[in-house]
Amino acid sequence: MSGAGGTDLVYMANQIARFFETQGDAAAAVRGVADHLKAFWSPDMRAQLKARIAAGEAKDLSPLAKDAVTSL
Amino acid sequence: MSLIDEIDFGTPESRSEASVTLTIDGRKVTVPQGTSIMRAAKSVGASIPKLCATDSLNAFGSCRLCLVEIEGRAGTPASCTTPVTDGMVVATQTQRLAKLRKGVMELYISDHPLDCLTCAANGDCELQDMAGAVGLRDVRYGQDGASHLTAEKDTSNPYFTYDASKCIVCSRCVRACEEQQGTFALTIAGRGFGSRVAPGPSPTFMGSECVSCGACVQACPTATLTETKVIEIGQPERSVVTTCAYCGVGCAFKAEMRGEELVRMVPWKDGKANRGHSCVKGRFAWGYAQHKERILSPMIRASINDPWKEVSWDAAIAHTASEFKRIQAKYGRDAVGGITSSRCTNEETYLVQKLVRAAFGNNNVDTCARVCHSPTGYGLKTTFGTSAGTQDFDSVEDSDVILVMGANPTDAHPVFASRMKKRLRAGARLIVIDPRRIDLVRSAHIKADHHLALRPGTNVAMLTALAHVIVTEGLVDEAYVRERCDMDAFTHWAEFVARDANSPEAMEAVTGVPASEVRQAARLYATGGRAAIYYGLGVTEHSQGSTTVMAIANLAMATGNIGRPGVGVNPLRGQNNVQGACDMGSFPHELSGYRHVSDAAARGLFESAWGVTLDEEPGLRIPNMLDAAVAGAFKGLYIQGEDILQSDPNTRHVAAGLGAMECVVVQDLFLNETATFAHVFLPGSTFLEKDGTFTNAERRIQRVRKVMRPRNGLADWEITKALSNALGFPMAYDHPSEIMDEIARLTPSFAGVSYDRLDALGSVQWPCNEAAPEGTPVMHIERFVRGEGRFIITEYVPTDEKVGPRFPLLLTTGRILSQYNVGAQTRRTENSAWHEEDVLEIHPQDAEDRGVRDGDWVTLASRSGDTALRARITDRVAPGVVYTTFHHPDTQANVVTTDYSDWATNCPEYKVTAVQVSKGNGPGDWQARYADQSRRARRIEAAE
To answer: A-chain residues within 8 Å CB-CB of B898?
Structure first.
């Protein structure tokens, strides 16, 4: 369930990160993204994104989003 | 059960707090200052004869029938136009008055057909009633003189007839069109004996500016303006108060019946959302319930390429349950889900999410709010603490400044638009933020002070620029912010918006709106008195939809415009029960009352009540379900009253998702577009055929009452109950009131709601609980639901949907008055007479550049797909912007829209699609193929 274009998980995570990076310091931004993913994404979506990071298939993922996903 | 006889007080209620005491026919009466003698008399049961007066309209004083005598005053003044004064002594029935009234009635009747026995208004005619009331026994003038008795009828409007021969020129219709509706389509043409009601600018109603709201028909005291159905069927014999099933205004109507036949829908004067007004949809467009294409028997098929086969309810339910069990056994518990309907009742929506969570055992439930106001839920919960608008509709009457953003109330929320226009005509100032020149920008006696015609996709830039002006020019309501809001968050926000990069001058290149206009608008909003914001899908359906909602909330908090009448942040919700669907726990991450599924205490309540263990993780949203289906992980979907193939973005992607599933169940009135991909069709019931409640855009919970038996055999809640029982999770409700009782037990904001309370109060706005037993018209009065209001930094992030050489124009989409959403209901009514097809609005310059003339077929292409439709050349849209509606499956505007969506909620970015327009020759290949597929998918095998 990787989606495509606007529903691609990497794209969506980057969108979320783009919002939270303006909401406070770096640690708060990571927390904000992670909390958002926990609150609104299904466990399977989160697992898929983690797996893509592990497989090196999420090169376009922003550093903030990556930090948040790996913190989950 | 009989007809509900509403009392007509003759003139509107006075809102004065001062009172006046007088004597009427020997009885002391105390009424608010400014009350008319007519109204005061009616309040003590004295009915003064009248014809031109009705309490929905201002007094006019033309019929000369309501004359009274007042001690110490000469003459016989009209009681409708004479206000009461302290100590006044009034006589309403004297010999002198009786003689005068009889004389007046003689004149009326001398030019009126004496066909009462065959007249459609027989039994419901105020002229007939007044003739009786004044004791008219003969007409001295006869009927031989000049008259209007041979005037021709205007039957051009499909819903009502205008018979000028019966007109008494009381002007009630003209005034209703002006005062209630605000369209000013009618006038009295001619003078003296030649005076007659005339629509304009064309001589027929259908060709005129009339919007068929029905206010004139409702106001007419004779048979001059009569519903076509009343002419066909006769007078109704009973009425039931219920709630309209179209938009989020939630108009209350009297369904007037003969037996089980609906004769007409009449707006209920006591309806607190509509206050006795209506629009063409709620008033007239209910014929779909009897339409020949309505499906009344359950149907199944093994493959979407097969014809449908009718089966019994038992067989359909057993087959569906068996399929879902098979899929879950084979692919896992999470391979199925459900979509609740914003067109169905709260009780039905609640049951579907309960079915998914408890019987399916996962949280894969979503609703159409995903594609409309999910950003409202996120944005207002984050800033204020609750996912709903702050005001009641009455609040607009106290507004000094009205800011309308990304909404076109005239078309999409017409009854509230009329109330808003009334306030604007009375002097409120208006700011419109919209790429299109919507009707409100300039209409009869209304002109926006500022129309900020921004480029699509730049809402956040615009709102942050407005905030910049408010902060840097010292227009913040500091006392309010200090007392009510999180000061740290405010400080950070104020520093952010004050940056030069956020100034109107810097943002002018982004929004395309002159900085000086933005500055003036900001000053007006901040300093013009009580300022209210109303917004629609032009705010939410963007990649920054949630950010835009929070930017709106920031503006309101910074200026102290939250927590009292006349102000507030008011999302205009699209569907009749989209607010309710959200309240009922239709989102995959929330239980009813907006409590997150990870909240162990909230979850525990439901687990205890339902006897199951609930998943603590959020489930899939609609777009996630479709992606999972394409990936092979999601195989079964139960869809109640939703047509995602037509309404959701990127139609081809939706089709691919549905096509990859093994059991798609559609529960609807008609074989909608989604049913093309369905394996089970469960026929649904209309709002006329069941009991329940809807919750409108102002959080008002109102009863839906059954006026006839379900033609399909079962109400929708009974279908869900049967399916749950077949799946092994018993539901034992006998009536929707029992479902509401369960909702109230489990949902703090609904704790005080019951059918008994709704019957007693008419309606209530949530929160309705021990602290607010009669509901909450205005929220956040002393404190925000979350405690302190929270300012959020709203940085503008341009959409990734870019214009370029291949796709140089921006497409935005919306609704039109006569049609409703995917059109499943309205296209099956006479409303299609106003809007037979979707058209593409294009600016004259863009049309000329492409050699397109008005009415030409054009191809509309985007990166997602293309479709063809006819062009309408208009400067309502700015150069570079095109606009269309999405009411017709033949066009399928969503073939063109993309799957970009709001960052927080995945609400699709319907309002910004880069497109190209070129001259075409007619419907495209895709449309032809789809039409063929759709035709094949609707085949029904003949019963043996």
So the answer is: 5-6
pLDDT, residue A1, reads 44
B501 and B464 Cβ atoms separated by less than 8 Å: no
Position B792 scores a pLDDT of 97
Do B275 and B290 touch, CB atoms closer than 8 A?
no
**The pLDDT of residue A60 is above 50:** yes
pLDDT at B724 over 90: yes
pLDDT, chain B, mean: 95
Q: Establish, for the pair of chains A and B, how many residue pairs have beta carbons separated by less than 8 Å.
A: 79
Chain A residue with minimum CA distance to B650: A6
Which residues does chain B have within 8 Å of residue A3's beta carbon, measured at their own beta carbons? Answer: 623-624, 627, 899
DSSP character at residue B257? E
Least confident window among B94-108, B209-223, B470-484, B806-820: B806-820
For chain A, how many structural domains are there in total? 1
Helix axes B487-497, B459-472, angle to 10 degrees: 100
Cα gap B709→B690, rounded to integer Å: 8
The pLDDT value given to residue B483: 97
* pLDDT tens-place string over residues B898-913: 889 999 999 999 899 9
Per-domain residue ranges of chain B: 19-93, 126-290, 299-372+578-765, 374-571, 809-937
The fold for domain B126-290 equals: Alpha-Beta Plaits (3.30.70)
Per CATH, which fold does B374-571 belong to? Dimethylsulfoxide Reductase; domain 2 (3.40.228)
Of B620, B793, B797, the CB nearest to A23: B793
d(CA B541, CA B535) in angstroms, rounded, equals: 11
- Read off the pLDDT of each residue in B326-342 and give the average, rounded to a whole number: 97
Residue A22 sits at the chain B interface (C-beta within 8 Å): yes
Interface contact flag, B624 A6, Cβ < 8 Å: no
Rounded Cα gap, residues A3 and B906, in angstroms: 12
Domain range B19-93, CATH architecture: Roll (3.10)
Confidence bin at B894 (pLDDT 50/70/90): confident
Question: In this complex, do A41 and B628 lie within 8 Å of one another by their Cβ atoms?
Answer: no
Burial B89-103 (b: 16+ CB within 10 A, else e): ebbbeeeebeebbbe
Q: Kindly write down the DSSP assignment for every residue of B316-374, as one continuous string.
A: HHHHHHHHHHHHHHHH-GGGEEEEE-SSS-HHHHHHHHHIIIIII-S--EEEGGGGTTH
Question: How far away is chain B from the Cα of A69, in angstroms, using its nearest Cα?
Answer: 16
Q: Considering only CB atoms, which residues of chain B are within 8 Å of chain A?
A: 334, 363-364, 492, 496, 543, 547, 588-589, 596, 598, 617-621, 623-624, 627-628, 630-631, 633-634, 653, 792-793, 795, 797, 800, 898-901, 903-906, 909
CATH class of B299-372+578-765: alpha beta
User: Which residue in A3, A15, A44 is closest to B903 by CB distance?
Assistant: A15
What's residue B928's pLDDT?
A: 86
Q: Which of A3, A24, A44 sits opposite B334 (nearest CB)?
A: A44
Helix axes A9-20, A63-71, angle to 10 degrees: 100
| A25 part of contact set with chain B, CB < 8 Å | no
Residue type, B345: T
**What is the model's pLDDT at position B944?**
52
Contact A2 B898 (CB under 8 A): no
- Which residue of A lies nearest to B799 if distances are taken between CA atoms? A15
- The residue range of the domain holding A36 is 5-71
**CATH numeric code, B809-937:** 2.40.40.20
Band (pLDDT 50/70/90 cuts) for residue A2 is: very low
The average pLDDT across B846-868 equals 94
Q: Which residue has the tokens 């209620």?
A: B13
The answer to whether domain B126-290 and domain B809-937 are alike in fold is no
B2 pLDDT tier (thresholds 50, 70, 90): confident
Q: Which residue, among B899, B902, B909, B911, would best test binding to A if mutated, counting the most A CBs under 10 Å from its CB?
A: B899
